[in-house]
Amino acid sequence: MRQEYHIYMTSDGRISMAGLSARTVPHLADAIHAAVTQLK
């Protein structure tokens, strides 16, 4: 997610929710959806 979507997480997968805004939530949702659906 970091390279493609520029979303940075801690080593245990946490994301800072305080850094989100109404404008950036769709971007995060798209990134999570892509990551989950591309798992094999």
UniProtKB/TrEMBL annotation:
Top-level lineage group: Eukaryota
UniProt keywords, alphabetically: Aminotransferase, Pyridoxal phosphate, Transferase
Subunit comment: Homodimer.
Species of origin: Arundo donax (Giant reed)
Designated name of the protein: Pco118382
Cellular-component GO terms for this entry: mitochondrion
Lineage of producing organism: Eukaryota, Viridiplantae, Streptophyta, Embryophyta, Tracheophyta
Keyword Phosphoprotein tagged: no
Single annotated GO MF: L-aspartate:2-oxoglutarate aminotransferase activity
GO term, biological process aspect, one: amino acid metabolic process
Requisite cofactors: pyridoxal 5'-phosphate
Keyword DNA damage in annotation: no
